[in-house]
User: What shape does this take?
Amino acid sequence: MTSLANNVSLSRPIEGLMQDYPLTLHHIFWRVEKLFGPKEVVTRRERGVHRYTNADLVKRVYRLANALRGMGVRPGDRVGTLAWNNYRHLELYWAVPLLGAVLHTLNMRLFASQLEFVIRDGGDRFIFVDASLVPVLQNLQGRLEGVERIVVLSDDDEVVPQHTLGELIDYESLIAGEPEAFEFPEVDERAPAAMCYTSGTTGNPKGVVYTHRSQFLHTMGAMQVGSMGITEADVILPAVPMFHANCWGLPYAAGMSGAKLVMLDRWVGDGNVFVDMAEAEQATILGGVPTIAMNLLTTLRSTGRRLPRVRRMLCGGSAIPENLMRGMDELGIPLLHAWGMTETSPVCTVAQPNSQHLTESERFRVRLTQGFIQPGVELRIVDLATGEPLPWDGEAFGEVHVRGPWIASGYHNGADPDRFTADGWLRTGDVAKVSPDGFITLVDRAKDVIKSGGEWVSSVDLENAIMGHPGVAEAAVIGLSHPVWQERPVAYVVPRPEHRDDLTADDIRGFLSARVAKWWLPDEVRFVDEVPKTSVGKFDKKALRANAAPLTSA
Ligand code: AMP
Assistant: This one.
């Protein structure tokens, strides 16, 4: 009898009995409203700061939601923002997706033709623009047919620059009379919440569309101790533009955790403003690309100021040079290196040493890698020529593929489908090696790695080695075609101002010979005033290659 009863219960089908609770931004907003009302949101202004609490933010988000609905914003509509890091932009970060519409953050540094493409390709019906950025839209005058309304974000004392864009709606007047309550619709967790175009250097930018679910899970991931480790007690100061790569997920991480958020408006690249705000608001977590960290280091060194409350600075977007990491350590600001891209929401790996890294030098070395694969992300490397998976031995390098719930499954309008493999991975275009314990080290971009005599030369390693020379401010390396070797490295070097007249190609080669293999030494060192940069401040090697004179030996 007993065994028969057991058999019966074993064969009965079973259902999972957990709630199908949607993973949407509504939950994060619920926390902002119910749990963290008194926490502050601070924005730098031309003079002084704007300061309010989450409770004030929530009321304005409700008013904005009413106004958006009144303007005819429907679920799925794209609402473009051309704005710096400020509280009005943050209000849009909430109200637009909570309504079921899609927040499309626009990069004001794109060329006019690219910006036009992005607005058109994204299908923006509405654009919210900072008063200071009206001239950027003015450049597109007559080319914004799909855009029905433009709303301008400005302070009372701010003069909107002259334009011929027709009637601009004033944001404050728009929301002024609206009720401070709103019933947000139910939104499917797989519905789009936001979109952000890649700032890649090849072809047109491509649209990445985040879902509520991807934003939710990325936020949970980013908060973890092994990731950015954000808590309620933190004061987050991102010097990362809110239009770039989902602002590294920091606005929503601040909402989820209850951390105070400090924003720099248009002064994201100004070292002095950064230090002023970090000091005055007692920031504990900073965020910025290595160039921003370098600015910060220079500012702190030259002024003697220190930021004792800061417990870490999140840093990624390009590799952290060793001297920068050391310099910041000396000032008590550990850089936390992370890797990712617009397509990956963006965080995929974070470089926190673990219990196996015992000595200081080992821990330092690990912190310089691009980091440990984060929960929620799967990663593989494949051979550049054959596409076969490669071992994680810390030696073999190949293209990085990733997959997971906050990784893009395709681009908007089906652009560049080859970036997605048939078995469900994103081809990142980055080349890396992986250590047996799951830390990745980026070697290059797949299109920048130099093929010389059947061997690979990492342009990034060469650049970093050259930038270790005390007379060098910046260096970018590209491969140029060579009749015998297929390609050979050429270095473009910007000397520091005080070495403009005395730094020579032999100095650079001499310095390198102690640091890299002989066959890696650049065939030519070309001195330039600056290295061309992309709209997000990375070396624009496509522009370098397009304008490069051929090798003299070729
Ligand atoms: P974006 O989509 O503009 O954020 O650019 C993403 C690209 O930036 C990646 O594919 C990498 O090539 C580069 N990148 C991001 N983080 C790092 C890092 N920590 N070290 C080196 N390169 C990085």
Observations:
- The longest helix spans residues 54-71.
